[in-house]
Amino acid sequence: MKCTKCGKKAVVQLKHHNLALCEDHFSEWMCTQTERAIHHFKMFSKEDRLLVAVSGGKDSLSLWDILWKMEYQTEGLYLNLGIDKGTAYSKTSGELAKQFADQRGLKLTSIDIKADYGETIPEMGMRTRRGRQKPCSQCGLVKRYLLNQKAMEGKFDVILTAHNLDDEAAFLFSNLTHWNMPYLGRQYPLLPATTGFARKAKPFCLFYERETTAYAFLNKIEYEHAECPYAKGSKQTKNKNYLNIVEDDQPGFKTQFYLGYLRAIKTGAFSQAQESAEALEKKRCSNCGQPTTSDGLCTFCRLVLKK
Amino acid sequence: MTAILKTREKEISVRGDRPLYRILEDLQLSQQAYLAVREGILLTGDDRVQDEDVIELISVVSGG
């Protein structure tokens, strides 16, 4: 197979774009497409200060690499969640994130959850009925809270996460099958800032996971290959695998599924869900002051204070 | 002789002299879920895998 642009040997085939690209043209295409997504969804500009959520995985490091090459103003935030389970997952991820930042002279802030809050994420999970087996909901809650808190404290304009199209399509699949309307109203690649919450953007939302992995490989980015030990057998992973089976049979299926959602949300299909989600967050946490849906403490403060 | 496909967890011996996508189909592995690397070079589905080739399969699916 030859590169559609230069005729050299292709290393990545993009059936859903009717393209095949060589090493150089693929990396160039990833940068161009990232820039297009940033402009199309009006995510941010070169004047904005961007806080990149860095996990040490292929997606976040590839995103940070592309933004660095395009000379955006970025800083990274790594959260050491204390996940080990015999794999040293958090330790390795943190080291790779630091190595990446050091090699490029980028600023990375690391937060150690155990040092700051007395417990790792799995230990927090052990205190809840559902979190004993898999502390994924506690993990998501802590990550969302701390990212927002650090962005607000550091006066960043935007929080960036490296969610890719496979992540988004799998969330969408799950949210649609459960008709989870509040979530369906909030899955757009750009969430504007609201009182107490920083703007959030997902510049990789139109890339397949295969493409971000190929970018990391071709650009010799060292990343944590192992997935989180608690993610094995998760619904999210299973949903990705189901969608990949359909994609093999119908190239472009995942893209059409996600783009269909974006068109629907633009035409107001989920506007009621968006309004009801915004209306819920009118209260303030009595401890930290962040907006919350509950009376008294917010969910994060309830988790970390009630030991 | 056979080709070897290596993932992080295991090694699989397969009949070579056919395109990569055929081998992945036979193993019921999604082309979406893996990148295939031979001697440091990424392969596309139509690249022919020869007997004696050692192919590294990199999983792309993460669920963290």
| Global shape of chain B | globular
Please tally the β strands of chain A and state the result: 10
Compressed to H and E, one letter per element, the order of chain B equals EEEHEEEE
Biggest beta sheet attributes of chain A:
6 strands, mixed
Helix content of chain A: 40-55%
* Shape label of chain A: globular
Please state the average pLDDT score of chain B.
Answer: 93
Helical element count of chain B? 1
Order of helices and strands of chain A: EEHEHEHEHHHEHHEEHHHHEEH
Question: Which structural class best describes the helix and strand composition of chain A?
Answer: alpha/beta
How is this structure best summarized?
The complex is a heterodimer of chains A (307) and B (64). Chain A is an alpha/beta fold and 307 residues long. Chain A has 13 helices and ten strands.
Describe the structure.
- The complex is a heterodimer of chains A (307) and B (64).
- The model of chain A has no long low-confidence stretch (mean pLDDT 93).
- Chain A has helices at residues 23-40, 58-69, 89-104, 113-117, 121-126, 136-153, 165-177, 181-184, 209-218, 235-249, 253-266, 271-280, 299-305, and strands spanning 12-14, 19-21, 49-53, 73-80, 108-112, 158-160, 190-191, 199-201, 283-284, 291-292.
- Chain A is 48% helix and 12% strand.
- In chain A, a hairpin with a 6-residue loop joins strand 9 and strand 10.
- With 307 residues, chain A is α/β, with parallel strands linked by helices.
- Chain B is mainly beta.
- Chain B contains 1 helix and 7 strands.
- In chain B, 11% of the residues lie in helices and 41% in strands.
- In chain B, the strands form 2 sheets. Chain B has a 5-stranded mixed sheet, with no helix packed on it. In chain B, strands 3-6 form a two-stranded antiparallel sheet.
- The A-B interface holds A 1, 10-13, 20, 23, 55, 57-59, 166, 208-210, 212-214, 217-218, 225-228, 231-232, 234, 236-237, 240-241, 244-245, 247-248 and B 8, 30-33, 35, 37, 41-47, 58-64.
